[in-house]
């Protein structure tokens, strides 16, 4: 009867010896409201990395691209290709949104895996990937929701809402439900993957500090990249879906 | 004893309590269920190998930790403020929007424009190259025509030269033949004259000879 609570206790014990602090936040008060300071700090670092590398690489574009410019051109073509595949011919205005979504999530995820955040000690909580916090992922998912509503309404006006009774009015509740499940699934998928990833690595490191966690770390890097790609692809797919004409 | 276990389980998530430590708190008289046996094993391991056993023990516990305790785990995580929404959400959203505008200004639009322009330039150059290829063909045709004309001219000149040479040669040949014939005729005339002279001489000799014969045959009276 006391098996389950004890194993939980064991698990929390594992958390503690490995130094994992799940759901512990460093709070800042801003005008009577609280923010998670560690998320904001890491997101600033991520934004600084992005803006800095882009500025360095693309400041003075050459006809024959060198290393950095080449990489960012490849990246831009990748993002354009992704947007074009999902949205169609009118993908142009959405490239910044999809691209920023992909880059921000990707660099956030990889920063959690690659940057030695733990060196910096916080009074409470710890620095990790910004996507490790539900606030970030929900913010991104809600922005995606707004983006696809905006795309549909600007493209088709109020007749956009006609899609709720397509193909038959019976599906109205499900169609409305979809508008809630989309951001929910987007945010929870990213949040869960990144959090679980960091937990697995940290717990494994605490159990076997050498060699064994390395494959899991690589798997983590892979998962992080895939999650960024999935988020950007789905955002583009939702936008494309709300822009396409219904029959 | 069970209450002791429960008490140790009620500790909040932040209290440092390794599995080995919790196991070592339990004396030997535990009820023989799976986890307790495991913990006993861990305990004896620890006694034999000291600190090194901690990792092994943790591994054993993690391996034997089955599928059942998920709801309770969820409760623990709730306590840990995982779903703690606050001002961070709009802050991140506005940061994202700012980042989007900034990246659009310094990355997506300029580099995209640059790439498109380069693409267009390369395409234009490629088109030019295709055009010049037709030009090259035209020039090749011209060159072929020039070569053909030159060949015709040369062969005409060659023919004419051949004709001229032949005519010249024939003239020379005819001249030579004429000269030879003249010489021949002259030689034949000489021969004829010599023959006549000889015949004339022979005639006189014959007359003399016949006179002598006559004198000899017919004795002089």
From TrEMBL, chain B:
The GO annotation for biological process reads: proton motive force-driven ATP synthesis
Residues that span the membrane, as ranges? none
Q: Which UniProt keywords apply?
A: CF(0), Coiled coil, Hydrogen ion transport, Ion transport, Membrane, Transmembrane, Transmembrane helix, Transport
InterPro entries cross-referenced by the UniProt entry = ATP_synth_b (IPR034679), ATP_synth_b/b'su_bac/chlpt (IPR002146), ATP_synthase_B_chain (IPR050059)
Look up the coiled coil feature and give its residue ranges.
129-212
Superkingdom classification of source: Eukaryota
List the membrane topology term(s).
Single-pass membrane protein
Quote a single Gene Ontology cellular component term: proton-transporting ATP synthase complex
Q: Which GO terms describe its molecular function?
A: proton-transporting ATPase activity, rotational mechanism
Localization terms from the record: Membrane
- For this UniProt entry, what is the primary localization, expressed as one broad class? membrane
Function, as annotated: F(1)F(0) ATP synthase produces ATP from ADP in the presence of a proton or sodium gradient. F-type ATPases consist of two structural domains, F(1) containing the extramembraneous catalytic core and F(0) containing the membrane proton channel, linked together by a central stalk and a peripheral stalk. During catalysis, ATP synthesis in the catalytic domain of F(1) is coupled via a rotary mechanism of the central stalk subunits to proton translocation.
Protein family membership: Belongs to the ATPase B chain family.
What is this protein's name?
Answer: Uncharacterized protein
Q: Which organism is it from?
A: Spirodela intermedia
The organism that produces this protein has a lineage beginning with:
Eukaryota, Viridiplantae, Streptophyta, Embryophyta, Tracheophyta
